[in-house]
Specification:
single chain; alpha/beta; FAD/NAD(P)-binding domain; nine-stranded mixed sheet; six-stranded mixed sheet; 10 helices; 20 strands; 24% strand; globular; binds flavin-adenine dinucleotide
Length: 418
């Protein structure tokens, strides 16, 4: 029998969750292979996102008010949130679970854990950035509000942040303008979260691949996990194009496709794909120095190496990456009311990018062992925080692979919690 350290771990999914898990498992001395069905230059949700590292996001998606807002937004083709109605038992179960968790009791039970995970992840980013070719911009995040109601809501989040021991500052319009003089803003005010950061997610992904290879890990592209072979409560082998590969430990980090993979093992993980879009201006009219979020419009804005990325929309639906031009228009139309220097014309020749966030119904990621199978782990469901939580997720998965205690309230993240 091999020791815990020299076991062969196969990770399914070369998104940022799979890559970070691979890196930290290698740090623990394990033998690691990543299987990614796309090509080395392929795309996934981890590459075109807004690149924000967000300790400020300690409120899970399933929160009070989300149902009412969601229902209102459902009937506006350019709104930031939409659930594509379809006769799917999995979607109905997901919706029912979301409904059951969208309350303040749930938020209270999750907020400290989400903050702690995000803060520890941020610290890992800072460590990784010291000798990597990705640039971590540690300048904070501005939550920009152009209505008094929006500012009041965000100020309440700042109060909650203080209660949890996090830093947040409510700013009026003049103080907001002083925070970032390189951009003209039309806002009532903002909340500044100084511990948030931003980076270029593509550069971070490349840096993690380099680290994995330097540590002796292997990333196999164009390698899709097709079938899984089980015997006596364990996965013994996985198959690709008729070839059988034995595994000691299997980690499923397949993003929005994780539930499809787990179904082969008889596990019905509540997970939906939440499609979002980003648009990147290579030569923007103005280039802010800080990343920000338009609170009312739910659009994220991130400067990345001289370019400017706008990202938004959550279309809960199937696994299609088809672009809905109305939702993209919704993002573009939301910009000028906050950043008046920009116009719709600026986006005339920009090709939108689309990505599928893996969304759990209670807004908490899944990190843990799969039920009934002793050698299968799952890391997915991070929704809007997958980049931000990637390093800490990787570290937790490495702990679990080594049968060490990660030191968090793992029951709230358990794969079989519903
Ligand atoms: C518009 C937008 C903006 C966002 N902004 C932010 C942000 O600012 N900060 C933040 O923290 N998060 C953000 N997110 C969310 C974040 O991008 C995701 O949570 C994260 O990328 C999910 O990573 P992942 O590795 O789980 O999934 P993915 O990146 O989707 O990777 C999963 C991989 O698994 C592979 N795979 C699937 N099935 C198989 C199989 N059978 N065999 C082999 N490989 C397989 C897929 O090809 C894919 O490459 C944003 C998302 C969107 C859409």
């Amino acid at each position: 029998m091999s020791s815990k350290q020299d076991r062969h771990v196969v990770i399914i999914g070369g998104g940022i969750i799979g890559l970070c898990s691979a890196y930290y498992a290698l740090q623990r001395g394990m033998r690691v292979t990543v299987w990614e069905r796309g090509g080395e230059k392929g795309d996934n949700c981890s590459l075109g996102n807004a690149g924000m590292v967000v300790p400020s996001h300690f409120i899970p998606l399933a929160a009070p008010g989300m149902l009412a807002k969601g229902l209102r937004w459902m009937f506006h083709p350019q709104s930031p949130f939409y659930v594509k109605p379809r006769l799917s038992p999995a979607l109905m179960r997901w919706g029912w679970l979301f409904y059951q968790h969208a309350n303040s009791r749930h938020v209270d039970s999750c907020k400290q854990l989400l903050l702690d995970l995000n803060l520890q992840s941020r610290a890992l980013f800072a460590e990784l950035a010291k000798d990597s070719a990705f640039d971590l911009q540690q300048r904070g995040l501005l939550m920009l509000c152009n209505t008094q109601h929006g500012l009041d809501e965000e100020a309440a989040v700042a109060t909650m942040a203080h209660e949890l021991g996090a830093r947040a500052e409510v700013l009026d319009a003049a103080a907001t303008a002083r925070m970032d003089p390189s951009i003209t803003m039309n806002v009532k005010g903002s909340v500044w979260f100084p511990d948030d950061c931003h980076l270029n997610p593509q550069a971070f992904s490349t840096a993690m691949k380099e680290r994995i290879r330097a540590a002796g890990g292997e990333i196999r592209y164009d390698t899709e996990l097709e079938t899984i072979e089980q015997a006596q409560g364990r996965v013994v082998a996985i198959h690709h194009r008729g070839q059988r590969h034995e595994v000691d430990q299997l980690l499923i980090a397949g993003g929005s496709w994780s539930s499809e993979i787990l179904r082969q093992l008889g596990i019905h993980l509540p997970l939906q794909a939440g499609k979002g879009y980003s648009l990147t201006l290579t030569n923007p009219q103005q280039l802010p120095q800080l990343c920000s979020i338009f609170c009312e419009a739910k659009v994220a804005i991130t400067p990345m190496n001289g370019t400017l990325r706008f990202a938004g929309t959550m279309e809960v639906g199937d696994l299609s990456l088809k672009i809905n031009p109305q939702r993209v228009k919704g993002i573009i139309r939301s910009i000028q009311p906050y950043f008046p220097a920009f116009s719709e014309q600026d986006f005339a020749h920009i090709t939108p990018w689309a990505g599928l966030r893996p969304v759990s119904p209670d807004g908490m990621p899944y990190m843990g062992r799969a039920p009934r199978l002793e050698n299968v782990l799952v890391a997915t469901g991070h929704a809007m925080m997958g980049l931000s939580l990637a390093p800490i997720t990787g570290k937790i998965m490495a702990d679990l692979l080594a049968e060490a205690n990660p030191g968090f309230a793992m029951e709230r993240l358990a794969v079989d919690r519903f």
